[in-house]
Specification:
This protein is α/β, with parallel strands linked by helices. It has nine helices and 13 strands. The strands form three sheets. A six-stranded mixed β-sheet has the order 10-9-8-11-13-12, sandwiched between helices. A five-stranded mixed beta barrel has the order 1-2-3-5-4. Strands 6-7 form a two-stranded antiparallel ribbon. The chain binds guanosine-5'-diphosphate (GDP) and zinc ion.
Length: about 325
């Protein structure tokens, strides 16, 4: 007897995919049908964690192996380009409700250029993003001012910023609440405490978290396969170990500024259209920077991206 149904990709092992009919957590294996593979675009992976698929399975078989027949349209996805010159793209995850960008003010300092590129990708793909400052316990004295300045920049741009500590448990309940009934991606550079945070959210996940990073450290050959984990309190988290950077994919230079929410809010008042917000007279974005409505740091990130994109396109 054949059964056909809808499920979500929770893991890719290389030879096959693991699926579950979320919100149920009952994993079963499946392979991809050839024609699905052919229909996929120029990405290195045709199906990503979070993809919702139609599958069929022969229930009479001893070891049922599902077949993925069709990928349902994605609500959104997050994509990476390995280097600026690379044409190869990789879909990190699909159908996300929230991206939690984990950052640290110090130990290590997360660079604003990385944060702004990351946020731009999320804006371009319409994925709600929350900035989570971890290691809050370390910023009470000499780094307090730096943290508050950081918060002012990103709250001013329109982002939600949350201070947490995986070590002391500060605001972990709130974060757990925000993960409920949804699929979230946890991202950030190495060392910010992603693994610690996920373990703090659900200690039962401990053995699974950081597995891939460990394999990398020990020099084992792993293509970084992303994986979804169920929180015992509800909700699903996709851990993204070892992200060094995001290349900007499919974004025209003229569009760049529209993915800075604080610039988008004022750019209708620019005298020239299109306006690159660099040299044009009567530019509302530049005026915003002068008036302190748009932060200089974010504006400088914008200029940096504009310059880089222009360079690589020539
Ligand atoms: P990942 O690379 O992002 O997964 O980071 P880890 O979870 O491995 O954490 C990196 C280091 O930061 C470890 O030594 C953790 O013990 C430490 N760490 C993580 N969270 C906190 C925190 O909230 N406060 C402090 N003080 N240290 C933390
Ligand atoms: Zn302008």
């Amino acid at each position: 007897m054949e059964k056909s149904s809808i499920a979500t990709i929770v893991k890719h092992t290389g030879s096959h995919y693991m699926l579950s009919e979320l919100p149920k957590w009952e994993l079963f294996p499946a392979v991809i049908r050839g024609k699905v593979r052919l229909n996929a675009s120029t990405t290195t992976n045709p199906i990503a964690v979070g993809d919702v698929v139609e599958y069929s399975v022969d229930l009479d078989s001893d070891q049922p192996m599902g077949t993925i027949d069709k990928i349902l349209p994605r609500k959104n996805y997050i994509i990476r380009k390995s280097t600026n010159l690379s044409r190869q793209t990789h879909i990190i995850a699909a159908n996300l409700d929230t991206v939690f960008l984990i950052v640290t003010i110090e130990f290590p300092e997360t660079k604003l250029a990385f944060i702004d590129r990351f946020l731009l990708t999320c804006e371009a793909y319409k994925i709600p993003t929350v900035i989570v400052i971890n290691k809050r316990d370390l910023y009470d004295d000499e780094y307090k001012e730096k943290m508050e300045h950081f918060e002012a920049i990103y709250r001013g741009a329109g982002y939600r910023v949350l201070e947490v500590s995986a070590l002391t448990g500060e605001n972990i309940d709130l974060l757990r609440e925000m993960c409920k009934d949804s699929v979230s991606l946890f991202s950030g550079v190495s060392g910010v405490g992603k693994s610690s945070l996920i373990k703090a959210l659900d200690p039962s996940l401990s053995p699974k978290i950081g597995e891939i990073s460990q394999a990398h450290l020990q020099g084992k050959h792993t293509t970084t396969f992303y994986e979804m984990h169920p929180l015992s309190t509800g909700g699903f988290i996709i851990d993204t170990p070892g992200i060094k950077g995001f290349g900007i994919v499919d974004i025209e230079t003229e569009e760049l500024s529209t993915y800075f929410p604080e610039m988008l809010r004022v750019m209708d008042d620019c005298k020239f259209r299109p306006c690159t917000h660099t040299h044009e007279p009567g530019c509302a974005v530049k005026k915003g920077v002068e008036d302190g409505i748009i932060s200089e740091e974010r504006y400088n990130s914008y200029l940096g991206m504009l310059e880089e994109e222009t360079k690589y396109r020539q």
